[in-house]
């Protein structure tokens, strides 16, 4: 099981000089989570959804992207790729051959490989993660901040009866975000106690106005932006069965529910691919 046989070949890239607005349009249009950044045909960085959401005021790609990304050979095994992705806490590896970018191996590609392994082990044995949930009336601006603080890629959403109502992901935040332009004012005056109409006070006033541009989330409840048709699995679901559901549904996570359809935990794709470190094809 080699990287060459499972990688994505038609990679969406961004060429420098590019700006943040162009990257945001690419992520919205394609639904992907990150793009390699190229300069003169050479890979120089990776920019992701997280980079944009965690630095909403920054517009320079050079300051947003991760420089000199880790790469992998097309002849490497999927186990090697999974090991790097898990231990380096990344979601994608550029595949480079003879100094040229020829593909990308991502968590989603590895999930597709797990789906083919026919592993019947139940997910509750090793792979489910504890989680927290939010109320469906929580403002999106608050949701975005909670996801940033909690380093969460997705959060389940509950209704007023504590039943699973949806899922909100980074992809959804990017989809409904916009670029907001504004004017801010900074006052560098000396702050004297003189009357404000004296010549001394006027002389000491230094006010600077400057334009800012930032990524802004709309002020609306999360229920209006979340995914409502949620693919959920029981605690006794099989590993490869869940991987297949993720692949077909093009999702990064699956809520795990009990017999009453109540949320008990979450299964994330990054946890699921750990099986590649220990299992061999059957």
UniProtKB/TrEMBL annotation:
CDD domains: CBS_pair_arch2_repeat1, CBS_pair_arch2_repeat2. The lineage of its organism: Archaea, Methanobacteriati, Methanobacteriota, Stenosarchaea group, Methanomicrobia. Residues 7-63, 65-122, 226-282 form the CBS domain. It holds the Pfam family CBS. Keywords: Amino-acid biosynthesis, CBS domain, Methionine biosynthesis. It comes from the Archaea. This is Transcriptional regulator, contains C-terminal CBS domains. GO terms for biological process: methionine biosynthetic process. InterPro entries: CBS_dom, CBS_dom_sf, Diverse_CBS-Domain.
């Amino acid at each position: 099981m080699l990287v060459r046989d499972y990688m994505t070949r038609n990679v969406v890239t961004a060429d420098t000089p590019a700006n943040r607005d162009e990257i945001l349009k690419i992520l919205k249009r394609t639904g992907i989570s990150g793009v390699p950044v190229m300069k003169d045909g050479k890979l120089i960085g990776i920019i992701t959804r997280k980079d944009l959401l965690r630095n909403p005021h920054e517009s320079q790609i050079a300051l947003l992207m991760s420089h000199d990304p880790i790469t992998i050979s097309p002849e490497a095994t999927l186990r090697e790729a999974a090991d790097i992705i898990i231990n380096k806490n990344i979601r994608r590896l550029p595949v480079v051959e003879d100094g040229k970018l020829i593909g990308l191996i991502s968590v989603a590609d590895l999930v597709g490989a797990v789906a083919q392994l026919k592993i019947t082990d139940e997910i509750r044995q090793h792979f489910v993660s504890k989680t927290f949930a939010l109320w469906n009336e929580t403002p999106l601006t608050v949701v975005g901040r909670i996801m940033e603080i909690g380093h969460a890629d997705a959060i389940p959403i509950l209704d007023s009866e504590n039943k699973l109502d949806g899922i909100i992901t980074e992809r959804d935040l990017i989809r409904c975000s916009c670029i907001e332009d504004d004017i801010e004012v900074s006052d560098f005056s000396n702050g004297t106690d003189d009357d404000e109409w004296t010549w001394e006070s006027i002389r000491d006033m230094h006010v600077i106005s400057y334009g800012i541009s930032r990524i802004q989330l709309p002020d609306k409840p999360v229920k209006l932006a979340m995914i409502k048709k949620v693919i959920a699995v029981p605690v006794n679901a099989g590993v490869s069965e869940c991987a297949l559901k993720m692949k077909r549904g093009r999702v990064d996570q699956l809520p795990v529910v009990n017999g009453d359809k109540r949320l008990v935990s979450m299964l994330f794709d990054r946890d699921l691919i750990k099986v590649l470190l220990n299992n061999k094809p059957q």
